[in-house]
Design goal:
2 copies of one chain form a homodimer.
Chain A lengths: L1 H5 L2 H8 L6 H9 L7 H11 L6 H10 L6 H26 L3 E2 L2 E2 L1 H4 L2 H20 L4 H24 L7 H26 L4 H28 L2 H4 L5 H4 L5 H9 L5 H6 L4 H14 L2 H19 L7 H15 L3
Antiparallel strand pairs in A: 1-2
Helix pairs in contact in A: 3-6, 5-6, 5-10, 6-8, 6-9, 6-10, 9-10, 10-11, 11-17, 14-17, 17-18
C-alpha cells in the first residue's frame, strides 16, 4: 500500500498504535476504485489515488472507533470516505490554484486538464459519499454532507479573499476551520458515532478533531514558509505569492500596519517583488515561531478535549498524534 | 417562484397535474439556500438558483411519490435534492465547457471565475446531499450518490471523447444515460422508494425515468441544431462546434463514412469552417427527423414502463410528460 511505502512501517505502528494494522484495509478499499472498465479513467484514478500521504484523517476515525464496538465493516468504509473526501477536495483545489505539483508530484489538473479534474473530483466525491452511506447511519451521513458544504464554503471564502487586505486572525481561523478542521472534526465524530460511543465522548472527539485540525493547518501554513522548496515540492511562501494571507503573513502585517511589502503588493505595486521580499522577511523573523505558539495553544485544547475519554491506548494514541502534528516537517 | 414565472401557471398545472401545487414548495426550499451570512456567497447563489427551468425532474419525483403515501415532508427535500444535483452539475459543466451563457443568462463560470464555480458546484452538491439525507432512507441516499458518480463519469467520457472520431450511436446512448438519464431514473425511483411503493412499481419507475431521460437528451441534442440562436441563447450546432458528437452528427457521419466535413475537421483541417459547414448540412437534412424518430422509440419504452403502475392521475400525468418532452422547443 502506498501509505505504507511513504512512511516506514515502524513509524506508522508507533504513530497509530492500535489501528496501525487496520489502515491498510482502508488503503485497499480506496485502491479498489481504480478497477474500472475505462482505461482513461483507470489512469486518472491511479495517478490521483496513488499519491501516498500519511492517512492521518482515517487513522483518527479508526481511533475514535476504538472507543466503542470496533466494527471494521463500518469503520473501514467510514475512514475511506474521510480520506477520499480529502482527496476530492485536493483535486478541486488544484484546479482552483492551477497548481502544477502537490507533494512533489504533478497534480491531476496539470496531468489532464481542468475540465477533467473537475469531473474527477466529482467522481471521487460520489465514491466518498457512497462509502459513508455504507455505515447506514443517517447522522454520520449528514455530518459528511455538512462537512463538504463547510469545506466548499471555506475554499470559496479563501478564493474571494485572495489579494484583499482586510483579513484578520479571527477570519483566518474561521477559514481554516472550514477548509481543514471541519474534516478532522467529522472524522473523529463519525468514528465515535459509528461505533456507538456515549454522546459525551462523541462531543469530546468532535472538539478534539476541530482543535487538532486547526493546529495542523497552522503548522502547514508555517511549513509553507519555513521548509525548503525541495521539501515542499513548490517555492517557499507560495501561499503568500498566490495572494493568500495565512497566519505568518497576517502577523507580519500587524507588525507594520502602515506600510509593508504585502500591503504594497496588494495595492498592485510591483506585486511579485514585494511579495518575495515579504516572504524573505517572514522567514528571517520570529513570526513563524509566534505562529507555532498559536498552533500549540490549539494543540493543548485538543489534548484537553481528550480528558472526557476513558484512559487507554486509543486515547494515548490520539494524544501522541497531537505531538506528531506539531513536530512534523512535511 | 422562478419556475412559476418561467412557465405560465396554467401550463404548469396542466403538465404536472396532481403535483403542480406542490412544486412551489420545492422551489421555496431551494430558494431558502440563498439566506447565507456572506454577501458574496448570497450573490453567487441568487444568480445560480434563480435561473428558472421547468422543474421536470422534481415533478417526476413528486409524481412517483403519488403512488404510495404522499408525504411532502420527505418528498419536498427529495425533489429539491434532484433539482439541486442537476443545478450543481450544470455549474461544473459550464466550467468545463467554458460556457459564457446558459438559457440566455451568463453562467456562474462567466460571472465569477472558474475557481469559484468549482467550489460553488461543490457547495450545491453538499446541499443536495443534505436534502436527500433528510429522507432518512439509506437506499435513496445510495441511489443519489450512485447517480452523482455515473453523471461525473458520463461527463468525463464526453470530455475524453471530444474531437475523437471513433464514436458510435451505442456509445452516444451510454454517454447520455450517464449524463442525463441516470438522474431522471433516480428522481423517479427515489420518489417511489420514499413513498413506500411496491418494488415492482419502483423498478417500473426507474425504467420510465431512464427511458424518458434518454428521449429528453436526444431532443435536447436535436434542438441544439434545429433551434435558432435566439431560442438557444448560443449558436446553433454549438455541441458539434465544440467537438461533441451527438446523435444528428453521428448519423451525418454514418451517411458519408469516407469523407465529410466533420471527419476533415476532426483531422484538424480548417476545423471551424468544416464544422460550420457540417452544421448547415445537418440542419438542411432529414437527420434531425431521424434523430427524433429515435427519441420517439425511447419515449415509447418510457410509456410502456408505465403499464406496471396502477391507472390513475399520477400515471396519466407521467404519460403526458412523455409527449411534452418530445414536443418541447426549448
Amino acid at each position: 500500500m502506498t501509505a505504507v511505502n511513504a512512511v516506514a512501517r515502524g513509524e506508522l505502528a508507533a504513530l497509530y498504535g492500535p489501528v496501525a494494522d487496520d489502515l491498510p484495509r482502508v488503503d485497499a478499499l480506496i485502491a479498489s476504485l481504480v478497477q474500472v472498465e475505462f482505461p482513461w479513467l483507470r489512469r486518472m484514478l491511479e495517478s490521483t489515488l496513488g499519491g501516498g500521504g500519511k492517512r492521518l484523517r482515517p487513522a483518527i476515525a479508526l481511533l475514535a472507533g476504538r472507543l466503542g464496538r470496533y466494527d471494521l465493516e463500518l469503520l473501514v468504509p467510514l475512514a475511506a470516505s474521510v480520506e477520499l473526501l480529502h482527496t476530492a477536495t485536493l483535486v478541486h483545489d488544484d484546479v482552483i490554484d492551477a497548481a502544477p505539483k502537490r507533494r512533489g508530484r504533478p497534480t491531476a489538473a496539470a496531468l489532464f486538464n481542468n475540465a477533467s479534474s473537475v469531473m474527477l473530483g466529482d467522481y471521487l466525491f460520489a465514491h466518498a459519499a457512497e462509502f459513508v452511506t455504507r455505515t447506514g447511519h443517517v447522522q454520520v451521513i449528514r455530518n459528511f454532507t455538512d462537512t463538504l458544504r463547510v469545506m466548499a464554503q471555506g475554499e470559496l471564502a479563501q478564493d474571494i479573499a485572495a489579494f484583499e487586505y482586510s483579513r484578520d486572525v479571527q477570519r483566518y481561523l474561521d477559514r481554516i476551520h472550514g477548509k481543514t478542521a471541519s474534516l478532522f472534526a467529522t472524522a473523529a465524530e463519525n468514528g465515535a458515532l459509528v461505533t456507538g460511543a456515549p454522546e459525551r465522548e462523541v462531543r469530546a472527539l468532535r472538539r478534539f478533531g476541530a482543535q487538532i485540525g486547526i493546529a495542523f493547518q497552522i503548522v502547514d501554513d508555517v511549513l509553507d514558509f519555513a521548509a525548503t522548496a525541495e521539501e515542499l515540492g513548490k517555492p517557499a511562501g507560495s501561499d503568500l505569492l498566490a495572494g493568500t494571507l495565512t497566519l505568518p503573513a497576517l502577523l507580519y502585517m500587524e507588525s507594520a500596519p502602515d506600510d509593508n511589502p504585502v500591503r504594497r503588493a496588494f495595492a498592485g505595486t510591483r506585486r511579485r517583488a514585494n511579495l518575495q521580499r515579504a516572504v524573505a522577511d517572514i522567514r528571517a523573523s520570529d513570526l513563524l515561531e509566534q505562529s507555532m505558539a498559536t498552533a500549540r495553544r490549539f494543540a493543548d485544547e485538543a489534548r484537553a478535549a481528550l480528558d472526557a475519554l476513558p484512559a487507554g491506548e486509543p486515547r494515548a494514541t490520539l494524544d501522541g498524534l497531537v505531538d506528531y502534528v506539531l513536530a512534523r516537517r512535511s
